[in-house]
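User: For my dataset I need records formatted as: sequence, then structure tokens, nothing else. Please produce one.
Assistant:
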Amino acid sequence: MSRRNDLLRLLADKSVRTGNFVLASGKSSTLYVDARLTTMSPEGLSMIGPLALETIKDCRWEVDAVGGLTLGADPIACAISYASAKLNTPVRAFTVRKEPKSHGTGSLIEGPFRSGDRVLIVEDVITTGSSALKAISAVEAAGGQITGVLALVDREEGGREAISTAGYTILALVRLKEILDFRS
């Protein structure tokens, strides 16, 4: 079984729930993908980092730093950064707060992000694209150059189109439909 299929199986087993849910986008759904149950697990972290780096390489994205809106993007960014540690050009991870800190430096972006960085925005689940677009706005305001957007899961509910319409390249490691095909 390929690493991608292993990830699909893990997401299907750990992260997909049925019921009645309100998503972060405000939409109602009978399916919820709690990707954090996968992205924060040892096996999920060990799969996501290398698969994402492979995707970055295949897309020829030049990336200095990777991150996105907390909390969904955080483990993905860290998995990618960790997996890149032995490369000639390791990738730094950062996080974008939902609101600036009210103390200390008042930063909206935390971690070793630098103005001028070529940045890959990551997201756990793309529905409308609003979280990724919020992260893009914060990174660009701080001087980052967006290379692209990489989602772990695309729910295929318009988020990809919203991000593309805004002028950014977006890819997803998996689509929700593919995960559902792996459900037991």
